[in-house]
Amino acid sequence: MSDDVPLPDQLAGALHPRETPDLIGQGPAQAAFLEAFNTGKLHHAWLLTGPRGVGKATLAWSIARFLLATPESNGGMFDTPPPVTLDIPQDHPVARRILAGGEPAVHLVRRGGVGSQEKDRDKAFSEGRFSKEIRVDEIRVLSKFLHLSAADGGHRVVIIDDADALNTAAANALLKMLEEPPARTTLLLISHQPSGLLPTIKSRCRTLRLGTLSTDEMTRAIAASGVAVQGDPAALAELSGGSVGGALRLSLMDGLAIYAELISLIGTLPRLDRARALKLSEAAAQRGAEAKLALLFELMNLALNRLARTGATGAPPTIQAAPNEAEILVRLAPSPAQGRIWAEVAADVSARAQHGMAVNLDPAALVLDTLFKLGDSAPR
């Protein structure tokens, strides 16, 4: 695969989670895992949950390095002290092999290439064309891995990134493995929306919940991401809600500029600037702009929720994410009643956008119609 083609478990333009040497934040989750390890209560399967982009995959790879590089306690006189961190030196052989993608004791389950035949899927994968689901074929490959004995009799780690993508057949096949877990094997399931998983899968895993990062943690994580961030880090942190992955995605897709234009356009309400609205809708309809269209609606929903919050609290958010945002939000959401109107509009716009993109409605018409709806809802 070309280095320019992002993997299905990688944010385009950013480091792969296995390449991220340090996990920033998430102290409680790390402490919970270490306690289980140090007390001999290491569960065979862990469900790593939390908002998208807060470090779940980075934690999974940190755990993999730790388990393969840290000897288990034998309780003897010369036993080493219990570890107090998951960190493993970057020059450790395990860390080097994982970084190179050549650690035989780690198996990664992720979405494969599209196609019905194996040769077609391999070609599609190398070209960056991935299935929308983790299929049962990927779980069958995992089964073969689990039935092989570890070369040195040591530990093995399985990372599933992400479990939300498992289709029904794959989920049922994985469940059988969780019910009869192989010895000396730890399974790490990453999930952004655990409510969608089979209850029987969740019941066989111990959950590690990860939270959003603080502003300081966000700043450090963004700096360590390997991405040349464009725009104000504080604004990126504000719009991403404490998600490093979300902030990097915004930066890489010029999200701050799109949000600034959107807020400026909303600022023309109730008399919507139709020329600018048409220009924005046409940009969203260009060939290959599907990701930008989805981002535009995400940012639109975010702006509407910030309007609703301003109306409910009587004050705009502390951090402005666009020029003149505070002034525009206060003018368009002057009361709790108007805040409730914007909250209802946000829910309606989100539903309409999801439906419109699902049935392939004309993107330009979808954006323009949504902007006109905002005009109808603005206070006169």
Describe the structure.
The protein has 380 residues and is an alpha/beta fold. The chain has two domains: 17-209, P-loop containing nucleotide triphosphate hydrolases (Rossmann fold, 3-Layer(aba) Sandwich), CATH 3.40.50.300; 253-377. The chain has helices at residues 27-38, 56-69, 93-99, 118-126, 136-147, 168-179, 199-203, 215-223, 233-240, 244-252, 255-266, 274-284, 290-313, 325-332, 336-358, 363-377; strands at residues 45-49, 106-109, 156-161, 185-191, 206-209. A five-stranded parallel sheet has the order 2-3-4-1-5, with helices on both faces. The longest helix has 24 residues, at 290-313. The radius of gyration is 23 Å and the shape is globular. The chain starts with 26 loop residues before the first helix and ends with a helix.
SSE inventory with pairings:
Blueprint (H helix, E strand, L loop, with lengths): L26 H12 L6 E5 L6 H14 L23 H7 L6 E4 L8 H9 L9 H12 L8 E6 L6 H12 L5 E7 L7 H5 L2 E4 L5 H9 L9 H8 L3 H9 L2 H12 L7 H11 L5 H24 L11 H8 L3 H23 L4 H15 L3
Parallel strand pairs: 1-4, 1-5, 2-3, 3-4
